[in-house]
Design a protein that fits this description.
188 residues; alpha+beta; 4-stranded antiparallel β-sheet; 53% helix
Length: 188
């Protein structure tokens, strides 16, 4: 490849507006492998997979941080609902809708009493990675329903998520080759 990225190119890659650099690197891996440079191809493959994972995660976190408000619920104990109000990637408020209660008035009350969060600088709107990760952990912990979204909760159109399947296959190939390398060393 040999091209140097300028600041605008890096920004486009990180923000998910242009994944052509990653796609060119993937083509380079294929070329190296077809030329018989298997070890170089494997090292580059592993590095690209890490890059894709990091970029995909950052873009996912930035999508959540960019939302002025996201209201989510999960089933709680005894037919109750756990409510989370997320603002710019931070937990701004939470509460419980008791069993048998009309949910929307309770949710509106939780929203009204939630902390005001103004967006800060940077791709995560001033939130820390840990704050947004904690939100995502809660979302992934159980079936989560979206009550409302202020804004568009989307991943970038040309972001790292478009090549995440390649990264998964690359990681699987690395794991398999690591296992076969270990067997070969034991056989010697």
């Amino acid at each position: 490849m040999g091209t140097t990225l300028d600041t605008a190119d890096w920004a486009a890659l990180i923000e998910g507006r242009d994944s052509s650099v990653i796609r060119e690197l993937i083509i380079r891996v294929d070329r190296l492998a077809s030329d018989g440079a298997f070890e170089r191809a494997a090292r580059l493959r592993d590095r690209i997979a890490v890059l894709i994972r990091v970029l995909a995660r950052q873009q996912e976190l930035a999508a959540t941080a960019g939302l002025p408000e996201l209201v989510l619920v999960q089933k709680g104990e005894r037919r109750s609902w756990s409510v989370a109000v997320i603002r710019h990637g931070r937990l701004a408020g939470s509460g419980t809708v008791p069993a048998g209660a009309a949910p929307m008035p309770v949710i509106e009350s939780i929203r009204a009493s939630s902390t005001t969060v103004l967006p800060g600088p940077g791709p995560l709107s001033g939130a820390t990675v840990d704050q947004i990760r904690n939100v995502h952990r809660w979302i992934d912990a159980a079936r989560t329903r979206i009550v409302s979204v202020d804004g568009h909760w989307t991943l970038p159109l040309d972001g790292a998520n478009t090549v995440i399947d390649w990264a998964l296959r690359a990681e699987q190939a690395a794991a398999e080759s690591g296992t076969s390398d270990q067997r070969a060393r034991r056989a010697q």
